[in-house]
Amino acid sequence: MKVLAVIGLSFLALAFLIAPYYFAFTREWGLRRGSWYWLAWATAAVCTGHLALTVALYD
After folding, report:
1. CA–CA dist 17, 31 (Å, integer)
2. By three-state DSSP, how is residue 59 classified?
3. DSSP assignment of 5-47, as one string?
4. Tens digit of pLDDT per residue, the chain (59 long)?
5. How far apart are CA 35 and CA 17, in angstroms?
6. Where are the transmembrane segments (predicted)?
7. Cα-Cα-Cα-Cα dihedral sign, residues 49, 52, 58, 59
8. Contact of 11 with 47, CB cutoff 8 Å
9. Which of 18, 8, 5 is nearest to 45 (CA)?
């Protein structure tokens, strides 16, 4: 069960890294919003990756 949680969180972190580029290219959201838009996605990806690592390393 822990392996599935880590895999799911890893895919979610990857989605948080890909999503802003998708929205920027298809809907031009990144052009209309400031740098907080890009930092919010990066922060979400880092926090989710950290959560995946925490779950993986927890005994």
Report:
1. 17
2. coil
3. HHHHHHHHHHHHHHHHHHHHHHH-HHHHS-HHHHHHHHHHHHH
4. 889 999 999 999 999 999 888 877 787 766 666 777 788 889 999 999 999 999 999 86
5. 15
6. 6-24, 36-58
7. negative
8. no
9. 18
